[in-house]
Amino acid sequence: TNLSFVTLLGSLRRNSYNAAIAQSLPELAPDDVSITPLGSIGDFPHYNQDLQDEGFPPTVLDMAKQIQAADGVIIVTPEYNYSIPGVLKNAIDWLSRVTPQPFSKKPVAIQTASPGLIGGARAQYHLRQSLVFLDAYVLNKPEAMISQVPSKVDPLTLSLTDAGTREFLSRQISALAELARTIKK
Ligand code: FNR
């Protein structure tokens, strides 16, 4: 059976390296797996329960629906100050209040990219912790931490050029597909 995954991007930056990674994922997926980007989380308001009580922003509800309908989510994000960017946490906080909660029992893979040497590893464990509360099925292995990312993407086309990283990410997508199929059974 075919699977459809969506990508959730944790950077709002125009020339984001993480966006470059996310953009390259569809071509790294197996033939029976489609990968489409979710919209930007940049226009979610700051989470405030008063706003929620007045009615969820349509962008939040749209994204929740897309996640609900997907067979899995790939979160691609930078590390900020040894954690996840505030905008990503804000998006997760909004999405977590929607009923049905879209991350519940959802297969999720995490990818982080950084110019640094450990590729955003520390952000991954903060992200995992929030996803425990949301009862997502976060893929354990392979972990995808992309270090020294400026040397691995083409700065003009913003596509992932490093062969080793392409091969590695394609293995992680296959592992997420296997997890998603196991959960579907
Ligand atoms: C960073 N950066 C960073 N990198 C890292 O590996 N660990 C970290 O803790 C941080 N902290 C951090 C905080 C803030 C506020 C900024 C703006 C940046 C550097 C970061 O990895 C780099 O800017 C990336 O290029 C961000 O990813 P995108 O936007 O290119 O996808």
From TrEMBL:
Transmembrane segments: none annotated. GO terms for molecular function: FMN binding; oxidoreductase activity. Residues 6-148 form the NADPH-dependent FMN reductase-like domain. GO terms for cellular component: cytosol. Signal peptide: none annotated. SUPFAM superfamilies: Flavoproteins. This is NADPH-dependent FMN reductase-like domain-containing protein.
